[in-house]
Amino acid sequence: MKDKGILIVLSGPSGVGKGTVRKAVFSRPDAKFEYSISMTTRKPREGEVDGVDYFFKTREEFEDLIKKGKLLEYAEYVGNYYGTPVDYVKETLESGKDVFLEIEVQGAKQVREKFPEGLFIFLMPPSLEELKNRITGRGTESVELIHDRMEAARKEIELTSMYDYIVVNDDVERAVDKIYAIVQAEHCRSERVIDQYIKMLEVE
Amino acid sequence: MKDKGILIVLSGPSGVGKGTVRKAVFSRPDAKFEYSISMTTRKPREGEVDGVDYFFKTREEFEDLIKKGKLLEYAEYVGNYYGTPVDYVKETLESGKDVFLEIEVQGAKQVREKFPEGLFIFLMPPSLEELKNRITGRGTESVELIHDRMEAARKEIELTSMYDYIVVNDDVERAVDKIYAIVQAEHCRSERVIDQYIKMLEVE
């Protein structure tokens, strides 16, 4: 009896190290999930291979796919489109395999709307952990500056409430360990497996 | 700043191997949680030690503790009381340590009402047939008792929707791996860590 795969979405603020963590996730020998390759209209960089690093498309092709509803999520970033082709994701999940997406925060929000049952992980910069020290510890900042920083921090935290898990990227291998634990745990979540057991009991 | 510990509740039908799994959980060198020893009025089995496997009490002693509100949960099961002393659990959680309870299904239901934020894991037999083998395999129980336990097990499995996670006990070490992953993942759940950040921000 095969269950559907889980859609794993790794996101977080720009510069937090999502790409590095994703590569470390897939470099482990026991990586059991499929990586969903993104689509982009930006030019390939030296050494980048179409269908490996990205699917490279023209603007016309990309906009045609948007119109046809063939993108799970997309965003325009510094003049180029980036997106996730939906068919690959759906087919892979149906086959029982987990799919791993590493995407920007804007895109993650779109995926949450379409796949509320996905597993959403927010990669948190370690500096936020030291926020209190940074803001109050120095003792040299104006009340206004402290207030502004607290407001910025609050907004970041409000963003994270959309996610199921928060992983602090203080150390890449530690972050990867946590991601593996999260995926293993999610496969035991009662709302995901209960249907399987109800079937089992009916056979008895 | 220290956050409260997580109350981890391992439960499941009688005979599923809760005790064996719990011992294997605590035999690992990286076990970081505190075990809350249960109290019971049943007779010690061969090799069981008072204050290690259980606190063994008389019915009179047990009923006195019920009256005084000193039990987090208790149940009468096949003619004997089983329960969890409440003070130890509360103090340990407040100190920031996770507490591990291994209890019967009736008791888990009471704990869920008092600690909805607990982490509830249901240990599932690989099949009801397997469960019967385990219950009869102990070789120390009467036919009537075996029948009663099978009926109870069937009813208990229907209660799994109350749990956050379901772990199949097909292999003890595999079940323990999953429990460790679940606890590690829960420490990354956004609803648990967001409170930490909010508290941190309130210290203005």
UniProtKB/TrEMBL annotation, chains A, B:
The gene is gmk. It is found in: Cytoplasm. One of its GO terms (molecular function) is GMP kinase activity. Residues 5-184 form the Guanylate kinase-like domain. Keywords: ATP-binding, Cytoplasm, Kinase, Nucleotide-binding, Transferase. It catalyses: GMP + ATP = GDP + ADP. Essential for recycling GMP and indirectly, cGMP. SUPFAM superfamilies: P-loop containing nucleoside triphosphate hydrolases. This is Guanylate kinase. HAMAP family: Guanylate_kinase. It comes from Siminovitchia sediminis. The keyword Nucleotide-binding applies. ATP binds at residues 12-19.
